[in-house]
Amino acid sequence: MARRREGDRVLGPYQERDKWRIVIAEKGGARVSSFFATEGEARAAKRIAKRDLERITGITIKEAMEKYEMHQREDKNNKLRSVADTAYRLGLLFPDENALLLGLTSTRCEALFDDLKKRITKYGKPFSVDSQKNILAESKTFMNWCVSDQKWLKKNPLVNIKVEGKRRHRKLQLRVDEARRWTDRALELGRAGDPGAVAALVAYLMGFRASEVVNRVVRDLDDEGKILVIENAKTEAGNRGVEVPKVLRPLLKNLAAGKGPTERLFGNHWRDWVRKSVGRICREVGVPVVGAHSMRGLHSSVAMVEGQSSEAVARAMGHESARTTLESYATKEAVEAGRQRRVVERMLSGAPRAQSRRNIVPQSFRSDISAASRRRKTR
Question: Which ranges constitute the DSSP H helices of the chain?
Fold first, then answer.
């Protein structure tokens, strides 16, 4: 693929007496100066000259991506983690960052995407349909910005590329008995001082995202260990304070002991650490190996079975909409079981109830369930 011609630059502005000067330095050494009455006029002219020069000589993919990152940070106020994730996905599709942006024709982009689909990831597998769709969506948005905002391209070369297959809205979840064995072992390890096991329990019993777990600092553990506060979450709805289950309070307080208020509660880890900790415990107890995201989904499924509304579960999970909870986290069976349970309880509210087995409902929901039961009894 073609590379950018180096040497053409726009310099300045420089103040010279009562004027301001910019200089267009060409590759062969020639220089052309332009003078302006104010610094503002000179800077505006410099921006126009740079854009014209980019159109003539061609901007590289790397330069375009750097400008796009700046646009995301400064104009859109995206979180740094989101900006970094976008840059990572763009880099997967466009590995030759020194190539010219103008060289990204439709044919070239189709070849790049075909190469991406065949590529083996660090996990020893090709990119999943979900990953392909996410990478393509981010790349199309970037290309649209290059076309509409910057005028570097006349059209989006990715517009006709599509991903075959459907997204997986729900990941494999453990059965109830499997989850009980998993929880018992995780608690055993956590009490023995295993921070990874405690992190895995927080992902399940409190429904936290893996990133929300690893980013917690000591001061987030509030009210003598009864509340764990989330700030700067993935979404605005994700900023919340969640009641810590009683069984987790001593484990989290032990992790916080001796650390400063802004130190990481679990130490410095990437979010994959939580997934690996969940999987490690799965292997120890002989259940299907799932990840942290799956345990977060199980949290919502159990809550739905126990009669919680989708809106209440969505709030606890930090979702902006109950639709996300229903489509991608709670299983259909859990939703139906919860609906049936609410109907039966309403119809038999005056009848004596048999003693139920020990359940695995996340502690963060139990106070709400008790309150709801009291309201029903007073009707």
Answer: 39-57, 61-70, 80-93, 106-118, 129-148, 176-191, 195-205, 210-214, 249-256, 272-285, 292-305, 310-317, 322-328, 332-347, 363-378
